Amino acid sequence: MKIMKKTQIRLISFLLIGLLSFQAKAALLLNGELSHEYLAQAGQQLLGHLELQNNGTEPIEVLLTQEDSAPDGTAHAHERSNRSWVNLAQEHVRLEPGITQQVSYTVAVPSGLREGTYWSGINVEPVQAETKTRPAPAGQIRVGIKQKIRYTVSIMTHLGQGSGKIVFGKPLIRPAKDGSKQLVLKLANHGLFHSRPTVALEVFDLRGQSLGTWQGNKRGLYPGASKTFEIALHNLKAGQYKALLVAEDSNSGRTYGADMNLNIQ
After folding, report:
1. What are the structural domains of the chain?
2. Three-class secondary structure of residue 176 per DSSP
3. Which end of the chain is more exposed for a tag (fewer CB within 10 A), N or C?
């Protein structure tokens, strides 16, 4: 059974000499979601695909590579990797202008594993053509900006039924970029399954009257991972408050809460 979720495109921008951009002539699109999730059983063979599209006017050479992403965010192997289970049907694709093509992959789930979430990534990126630029006038430097786009698709397999286990770090009040206050804290997943918590803060005056709920962001947490979450405290005046900090895991529906004292200065 396949579950699709959204995540982010990794966009890497860097400075290069030259003003002509390959991206203006050839545009690689990856249709569909950037997270492929499967409820799997030991010994099961799963089939998925990536849909690539050339939305430009020139052919594109596309490379597909696999990578590990450890709980700390670094790209190295770990005990929860399913990279060796995933087999790409193609690692190099040439897309003519206006063409859409599917690249299939299989996931061969081994036996004898602990329950929980296993994951890895598939990178999809165009091969950048060399660009020619006019030489800069004497005494000048010609500098341009060129963007390199790489899509990373997360391949997650969930063995068994379960949920993550969210643990709260110490919440801190910090200034936001717009001059207001925000609550910042780390959430860690100490469970065996992937979690997608959304944080929120319900604030009460010292008499116990609710003043409203401030919503925070939502992020995915692999087992063993921790990330920073923020809640913008717009229109909350300086003072002493009671508050209920909540993290709701949209994967499992479980809700975690913690009481706290809030001092806004």
Report:
1. 2-159 (2.60.40.10), 166-264 (2.60.40.10)
2. coil
3. C
